[in-house]
Amino acid sequence: MPIRAILILITISLALAACAGGKLPDDRSEKEKREEKFGKLFGDELFIFGEKNDPQDETSNQIINNTAPNVSPFLWNASLNVIQDMPLLQADRTSGIILTDWYQIPEYPNEQFKVDIVISSSVLRSDGISVSAFQKIKTNDGWIQKKLNKDIKNAIEETILNEARNLKVKAQ
Length: 172
Hints:
alpha+beta, 5-stranded antiparallel sheet, two-stranded antiparallel ribbon
């Protein structure tokens, strides 16, 4: 068989295979399939329980304020409410990232603050939000930046979570 005929046969075979459109076999283990469907209580190997996401909750999340399916609208709106006095540098609902610019409180002219928020959950969960807070202090040599302690970061997260819970109660 000439090479040209072999190439034509291979091309036709590939075209027909591409048109078949069947699902590829799922080669994940049963454990991986189960872990995808169900949430975990304490990390990787302990108790597995309940559905990971409530489909009704996801639907309501997508409807409220038209947020992306992977970002909780309650966490999103609560975050914006809590940092409303700070100038926004970036707010992207699709990725769940909110970045503020440096903000100076009038009572403290030698200090500036900045907050970065990442929302990583489509439902209202305490582990669905991560906050980083920074401070700049004015010295004779200019501004010195430092990360704020965990107590302030945790206080901001708790304030956002409480606001998100209040928004969810009002929405029901």
